[in-house]
Amino acid sequence: MKPINKQTALVVFSGGQDSTTCLFWAKKHFQKVVAITFVYGQKHFQEVSVAEQIAKGAEVEWHKMDVSFIGMLGRNSLTDQTLIMDENKPIDGPPNTFVPGRNLFFLSIAAVFAREHGISHLVTGVSETDFSGYPDCRDAFIKSLNVTLNLGMDEQFVIHTPLMWIDKAQTWALSDELGVFDLVREHTLTCYNGIQGDGCGHCPACKLRQEGLKKYLKIRNKIS
Ligand code: ZN
């Protein structure tokens, strides 16, 4: 990839494995990186402080934005304490961990924020390779929204999705290439049960993360 220097990028940043890898990817490719973390009514509020710590440790300007209305609009098990989390993907649609509109709102708000700060590059850690069944993680959605945002604000935003076509094992490999494998493994919070690092081990987010890690560690051990 060609270096995209002398520019600023705004990273949509949750403090999980994917967005943390994207944060360091952005630090490699852009002159300045700004991170924005959304409070959307998630049950595990420590996600926000984890994001803040990682961003500060990475010496990245960090902003927090409260969009709690998203969790109240569409019923899902990440914001609703009374709903039991789907541990497997149902046949007839996305699992109840899907927060309807989340990436639509996040990226739209991020774009308005970026515009106010003279930033045209947005970075998000969505991927359709290890697809959890979330329609707003797909490439077609991101491309379509990119066009919509540009038309809606008469801007030339570019939404970067460095993880779109790579799987979880390759995402671990990318963090290793970026020199942050241990940081990602120990400090990020991906677990839907709110446990930092290797997590609870049985929620869908942990399963995906651990399968990828196992696969990558096998490859890594062979090479070294
Ligand atoms: Zn978990």
Roughly what percent helix?
Answer: 40-55%
Annotated CATH homologous superfamily: HUPs
**Separation of termini?**
26 Å
Number of helices: 8
- Classify the fold: give the CATH topology: Rossmann fold
State the shape.
globular
Structural class: alpha/beta
Provide the CATH top-level class: Alpha Beta
Q: How many domains make up the 3D coordinates? A: 1
Averaged pLDDT: 90
CATH second-level architecture: 3-Layer(aba) Sandwich
Which consecutive residue ranges, at least 5 long each, have pLDDT under 50?
1-5
Global Rg: 17 Å
The set of bound ligands, ions and cofactors reads: zinc ion
Account of the 3D structure:
The protein contains eight helices and five strands. It has 224 residues and is an alpha/beta fold. The protein has one domain: 3-Layer(aba) Sandwich (Rossmann fold), CATH 3.40.50. Strands 3-2-1-4-5 form a five-stranded parallel beta sheet, with helices on both faces. It is globular. The protein starts with 7 loop residues before the first strand and ends with a helix. The model is unreliable at 1-5 (pLDDT under 50). Residues 191-193, 195, 199-200, 203, 205-206 line the site of zinc ion.
